[in-house]
Amino acid sequence: xxxxxxxxxxxxxxxxxxxxxxxxxxxxxxxxxxxxxxxxxxxxxxxxxxxxxxxxxxxxxxxxxxxxxxxxxxxxxxxxxxxxxxxxxxxxxxx
Amino acid sequence: xxxxxxxxxxxxxxxxxxxxxxxxxxxxxxxxxxxxxxxxxxxxxxxxxxxxxxxxxxxxxxxxxxxxxxxxxxxxxxxxxxxxxxxxxxxxxxxxxxxxxxxxxxxxxxxxxxxxxxxxxxxxxxxxxxxxxxxxxxxxxxxxxxxxxxxxxxxxxxxxxxxxxxxxxxxxxxxxxxxxxxxxxxxxxxxxxxxxxxxxxxxxxxxxxxxxxxxxxxxxxxxxxxxxxxxxxxxxxxxxxxxxxxxxxx
Lengths: 95, 250
Known about the structure:
By secondary structure, chain A is α+β, with helices and mostly antiparallel strands. Chain A has 3 helices and 3 strands; from the N terminus they run αββαβα.
């Protein structure tokens, strides 16, 4: 059974806690098909009323950024993209 | 409130209680972690249903028995559960088929009980109906997956069907207790639930590439207190702590 269980595909689970909010990634689980993935997500991740909607996505469908790209992706020093970079002259109103 | 009504309540309450006890036997042993949690969820739901109904039965009986007294201090001949739910877990296919046959009954029963003349029962049933609908989705999914799965899973599901089918029909046999409860508007007549149950069970079995067995002589007696030897062992384990340490709390 262990061998077969290891073959169960991995799914990523997203829960939307209430109307108006975005789905948030909450974790992953194993399931043999989409229906079981949804059922398992309900049972494992919404036991205490956490959710109003569930998405399950095959983990194999996730495309992740490469840690080796960390500097070129995220390491840039571009403070001018933050509003706090700019000095607001005295007497300017409405911002 | 007559004895017949209390009896009728115990038939549902005890079926839920005994099934919950059986399901807890899977805790830590299910084929996957996710399924382990799913089965524990089902067990807790069914236990909650049993607790509500046992408490109400004790109130209506007015003999000073609370849910614990009813659950832990009665012997097998005093239990009124369906024979189906006291059957051993067997393998996972066996447990899931037993659950499916039960759930297909529960989804017919609870919506009817939700319009019981007893408002407490109606309240319990309204919540239980939602729980049972999910339980059925879960168990029917497994019956289909295993029935229409590998040769091995199909073989196991077929063996479970042969084993459990004779116990499946007891829930729909009326007696005087049921007729009195139905007359009082407390609970539906068991036989009135059969057509819906049969349609659902036949659809899922067919979808699962499993045969729909012909109706046998249904095994019966659980609802009147005549049980298989399985119940005595189950109760021994379920009741041992309470009987050894009456009133113990933690």
